[in-house]
Amino acid sequence: MSPVFSVVVPTFDRPRKLEECLAALARLEYPRDDYEVVVVDDGSREPVEVAGHGAAVRVERRPNAGPAAARNRGVAAARGRWVAFTDDDCRPDADWLTMLERPLLAGAAAVAGRAVNALPDNPFATASQELIDHLLRWYNRDPADARFGTTNNMAVDREVLGAAGGFDESFSRAAGEDRELVHRLREGGHRIAYEPRARVEHHHDLHLRGFLRQHHAYGRAAALFRRRAGRVPVEPPAFYRELVRAPEARISALLVVAQVANAAGFAHESARLRLG
Q: pLDDT per residue over 15-31, tens digit each?
């Protein structure tokens, strides 16, 4: 009998984090026969092994091509009615699949959950999560009609995802492929829900260089997204005023820095697309 959920976890050169993710998935309060775990090894230097995690956990291997391509490989191998996505540096709460399932049973084609920063003493991880939380609040004011989600915590009807063509693999970095998919699904008439009670802990240990690189990549992905999606409204000034209004001054400052890096990335990619 096919499982209800297939959980797809792309991974690249983070074996310890993957072990912690798989341990969290094994603790889910969901019938064990009703979900499988598909780990996609995206060209790790040391091939991933999942022996000891049970027959319902298996590995798909592919040359490194980025998370969008890895997720598509996982979807191709999935057998569940719904495909849930998380990342190797995330640890889902025990009721994660139960919470994702409710909007899907109510007719949503996809549902976005919420990630929680598991490293509150790391200001760069905190600032990055503040940004994502702001996007979730801004775009998902109506949880039954959401417009934003991240692929470290999302579930999609497998047939709907297949008919839509999966993730756009031209998004080769870990940025933008989720926003583009949500936009494309909505353009196709599918309803997206937001369920903030479906939570994963995000263990993303950032430093300054990684923080700048991450937000530069977000800017590049935003430029590509706008090229792919066509006419997308630009966010009003209130979006940015609310964004930088963080509880701590240092986090507000980092959010300003993030927007500068984002703008630089956007300009970089826009120039590349024009020349290409």
A: 999 999 999 999 999 99
- Tally of domains in the chain: 1
* Amino acid letter, residue 16: R
* pLDDT above 70 (res 126): yes
Judge contact between 2 and 69, C-beta under 8 A.
Answer: no
> Cα separations (Å) of 206 from 115, 136, 173?
16, 21, 17
Contact yes or no for 159/2 (Cβ under 8 A):
no
| Domain carrying residue 243 | 5-275
Q: Which CATH number do you get for residue 271?
A: 3.90.550.10
* Angle, alpha carbons 255-12-215 (nearest 5°): 15
- pLDDT tens-digit readout, 223-243: 999 888 877 777 888 988 888
Instruction: Answer whether 0.85 is exceeded by the pTM.
Output: yes
Mean pLDDT, range 175-188, rounded to an integer: 93
* Inter-residue contact 84 to 6 (CB < 8 Å): yes
* Nearest in space to 86 (alpha carbons), one of 115, 58, 108, 124: 115
Report helix angle 123-139 to 249-275, nearest 10: 70
